[in-house]
């Protein structure tokens, strides 16, 4: 049986680019939230470090995340955001309690 899991994606904008990155990230919300297997996809911004954004995600299984990673809106985002992103870190988490 597939096991759901969470993802925390940390996306850090290059200096002075957070106002450009934020709307790009917001554009991902609606199409991702309707993808099969997407149980949660929420955007947060760090209060002390506005250049740092977090996507809190929950996926039903590996296949759903793999499909998401190859979706048209994600591939387009990667191409558009390459010039404004300084760093991306993806953590997969297993919920314990």
From TrEMBL:
<dbReference type="GO" id="GO:0005829">
    <property type="term" value="C:cytosol"/>
</dbReference>
<dbReference type="InterPro" id="IPR011008">
    <property type="entry name" value="Dimeric_a/b-barrel"/>
</dbReference>
<keyword id="KW-0503">Monooxygenase</keyword>
<dbReference type="InterPro" id="IPR050744">
    <property type="entry name" value="AI-2_Isomerase_LsrG"/>
</dbReference>
<feature type="domain" description="ABM">
    <location>
        <begin position="5"/>
        <end position="95"/>
    </location>
</feature>
<protein>
    <submittedName>
        <fullName>Antibiotic biosynthesis monooxygenase</fullName>
    </submittedName>
</protein>
<dbReference type="InterPro" id="IPR007138">
    <property type="entry name" value="ABM_dom"/>
</dbReference>
<dbReference type="Pfam" id="PF03992">
    <property type="entry name" value="ABM"/>
</dbReference>
<keyword id="KW-0560">Oxidoreductase</keyword>
<dbReference type="GO" id="GO:0004497">
    <property type="term" value="F:monooxygenase activity"/>
</dbReference>
